[in-house]
């Protein structure tokens, strides 16, 4: 189980199959990472769905997430989504 994770985006990439960014999610203990192809325009709801399908399914619900102050992670929707899952969001 990944308890503490960090997240950030890699942007400015050439378009590949309609995606132009990568969402990087790293487990702080093992330093293992997942790289998810996303669109720069994907909002918090799209990211939440991907998070459940790709991360929670494989690693369970984390206890804490550290991210930058990206508007998607600072949004009320994202904070409420994580609060419902019992995850502490740190920026």
From TrEMBL:
Q: Which residues form the Integrase catalytic domain?
A: 1-91
Q: Give the residue spans that cross the bilayer.
A: none
In alphabetical order, the GO MF annotations are: nucleic acid binding
InterPro entries this protein is in? Integrase_cat-core, RNaseH-like_sf, RNaseH_sf
Q: What GO biological process terms are annotated to this protein in UniProt?
A: DNA integration
Q: What is this protein called?
A: Transposon Ty3-I Gag-Pol polyprotein
Which species is listed as the source?
Noccaea caerulescens (Alpine penny-cress)
């Amino acid at each position: 189980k990944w308890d503490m994770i960090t997240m950030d985006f890699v942007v400015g990439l050439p378009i590949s199959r309609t995606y132009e960014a990568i969402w990087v999610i790293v487990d702080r203990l093992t330093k293992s990472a997942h790289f998810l192809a996303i669109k720069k325009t994907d909002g918090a709801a799209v990211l939440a769905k991907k998070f459940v399908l790709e991360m929670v399914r494989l690693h369970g619900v984390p206890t804490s997430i550290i991210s930058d102050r990206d508007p998607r992670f600072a949004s009320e929707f994202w904070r409420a989504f994580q609060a419902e899952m019992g995850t502490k969001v740190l920026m």
